[in-house]
Amino acid sequence: MCGIVGYVGYRNAQDVLLGGLSRLEYRGYDSAGIAVKARSMGTSSTQITVSKKAGKLAVLAQELENSPLTGCIGIGHTRWATHGLPNDANAHPHATEDGRLVIIHNGIIENYLSLKEGLLARGHVFRSETDSEVLAHLIEETYRGNLELAVREALRQVRGAYGIVVTHADHNQIVAARTVSPLVMGIGEGEMFLGSDVPALLPYTRNMIFLHDGDMAVLSQDGYRITNLEGVEQTREVTLIDWDAEAAEKGGFDTFMLKEIYEQPTALTNTLMGRLHDETGEVVLDIALEPAGFERIHIVACGTAYYAALVGEYLIEQLARVPVEVDVASEYRYREPLVDDKTLVIVVSQSGETIDTLEALREAKKSGAKTLGVINAKGSSMTREVDDVLYIHAGPEIGVASTKAYTAMVSAMLLLALWLGRARGTLNAKMGAELLHGVRELPRLVEESLQPERVAHIKKVAEKYKDSRDYLFLGRGVNAPTALEGALKLKEISYIHAEGYASGEMKHGPIALIDSNLPVVVVATESRLLEKTVSAIQEVKARSGKVIALVTDGDSMASRHADDVISVPRAHEMVSPIVNVVALQLLAYFTATALERDVDKPRNLAKSVTVE
Ligand code: M6R
Fold first, then answer.
1. Which terminus, N or C, of the chain has the lesser number of Cβ atoms within 10 Å?
2. Tens of pLDDT along 387-404?
């Protein structure tokens, strides 16, 4: 939550900061602000100018068009509000009373109230209701001419999560520090960058350093220095990022979400690339995990990643016959799960920074579990803390509603299930070969799902039901999570209330909701339980519900009873969740656009949830 950018170099800082923030706005869009200063000569100091506005970045950009800030050192912030309303005063950056020291912060200062009381008693004047502002005043108190030392000393008093960047009128450097909240440093020639995430920096450099928890960095035009909070020098590896800058731009699409939906065939190709061995028919995973070295698996994740984990549970139990438990991370970390060194804990995450998942991982490690991350973002906190990583290689995902990361996560779970099944001897060669064929077909099938006439039809269906107050999504077996994910997508971006259920559960409660106003999306693609799904459709129809059936091309069973039919390409049942969900992503997308919602920045949400 919250996006941070920092720059020191020779360019116009305002342009770098606004560009960087536009690529980080998915992290929060309650307000935006920048602070810029010119380089000072010798011992003279230069004034820092701050411009900040409630609302999306466009509001600030408009303000800056009228009154631009000049200078080549600056910091910028896009906010997801935790403490205090999303208004101008609470927008970052926050400055000291004399305006000589300015900070931006991502995270939560847990002991801010007691710190604030002390600061008020010592005469500091606060202009905002945020927890972050205490940092500016604390650093001001510890400042005696050396900004790095002052930040270090102030942070010793702080408890909580922070990614912080500080600039001072007397210095041609910016000082950053992180604990929990992510910070990436970009290395240029004669310039240095900071960002909460890689896409912010991609147009300028691909050489990046992921700062670790407890790191502090001092950046100047001449380079950087990394220490810990005790002042001990730290060496951090420079990672060459292989994403290109265009990958983080809209590339002609109206929204990032639509672009990312269309990127799925490529993302899936990348997830599978080099992992399916043509000659032996084996799955080859670049992980050191011993496939027979554990007795049970726990999979932990949040949101969409949790639904990918539910598909993973089904696949791993079916193919590898290992008991699997799946839990949402915020529950798992506090429920004292039974974990030992015979447990493999898998964390699934697009960002690798979701705090609930990260903390659940840490809890599991304390109990001696082996850990594996199924993760998209390279260099993220989780990738550094797990024993092994299975990257999903989906590329940067900017849209707040996850799409390509979901299908890539499910594909990675599928690969893992196949790999475990083969290694543990539970998957026979025939079934293995059939499935492998199904997996190989995935990019093509998803490409086919995105043919213009299919997309246009889904758009029509979405527009027909756009004014519905509620929606119900039903699915069964390996596609029960598809229904949950379909409902989540719709509610996130259209704000229509949607429930997802395993279709067999409908008669145990949700059936009471059905009337002629309720659209019920039923995932009724080919499966060994299709007849039972058709019975569920009939039960909905018997109560005048409106059925939108998601069926396999050429279907004649489920379509017969449906009000509207969405056909998808035929896929092996085990891989069908990946093909089916694409239609539900589009249904959600076109419902939201018909209602004129801001799909890339749905209200109240942020892409990466780094607060508990
Ligand atoms: O980065 P992660 O995969 O750990 O994020 C988990 C959830 O916050 C995320 O999937 C969220 O539910 C998305 N908005 C779903 O579209």
1. C
2. 999 999 998 898 999 999
Q: How confident is the model at residue 297, as a pLDDT? A: 97
C-alpha to C-alpha distances, 95 to 48, 132, 134, 162, nearest whole angstrom: 9, 10, 10, 17
Mutate to test the pocket of ligand 1, among 80, 356, 609, 611 (most ligand atoms within 8 A of CB): 609
Statement to judge: residues 122 and 36 lie in one domain: yes
Enclosing H/E stretch for 227? strand 223-228
For residue 462, give both structure tokens: 């979405």
- Test site for ligand 1: of 333, 354, 490, 584, most ligand atoms within 8 A of the Cβ: 354
Q: Residues 316-372: pLDDT tens digits?
A: 999 999 999 999 999 998 888 899 999 999 999 999 999 999 999 999 999 999 999
CB 563 within 8 A of CB 548: yes
d(C-alpha 322, C-alpha 420), whole Å: 9
Alpha-carbon separation of residue 300 from 155, 282, 354, 359 (angstroms) = 32, 27, 11, 11
Which position has the token pair 């299709």?
530
Q: Which residue bears the tokens 């239609």?
A: 583
CB 7 within 8 A of CB 191: yes
Q: How many domains does the chain have?
A: 3
Distance CA 311, CA 324 (A): 11
> Looking at ligand 1, which atom is closest to the CA of residue 409?
3
Is the CB of residue 404 less than 8 Å from the CB of residue 389? no
Pairing outcome for strands 184-187 and 192-195: antiparallel
In whole angstroms, give the CA distance from residue 151 to residue 141. Answer: 10
* pLDDT number for residue 161: 87
The answer to whether the beta carbons of residues 166 and 139 sit under 8 Å apart is yes
**Structure tokens given for 332:** 């798992």
Q: Is 2 annotated as catalytic? A: yes
Coil vs helix vs strand at 494: helix
Q: Ligand 1 pocket by C-beta < 6 Å: which residues? A: 302-305, 349-351, 354, 357, 400-402, 492, 605, 608-609
| Residue 78: domain span | 3-247
Q: What is the mean pLDDT of residues 557-585?
A: 96
Is the pLDDT assigned to residue 501 strictly greater than 70? Answer: yes
Q: In 10 A of CB 343, how many CB atoms? A: 20
Q: Are residues 119 and 268 in the same domain?
A: no
pLDDT tens-digit readout, 113-151: 999 999 999 999 999 999 999 999 999 999 999 999 999
SS3 218: strand
| 373: phi then psi, degrees, rounded to nearest 5 | -105, 135
Which residues, in sequence order, are CB contacts of 8 under 8 Å at separation 6+? 72, 73, 172, 173, 174, 191, 192, 219, 220, 221
Q: Are residues 179 and 262 in the same domain?
A: no
Q: How far is CA 555 from CA 526, 550, 576, in A?
A: 8, 10, 15
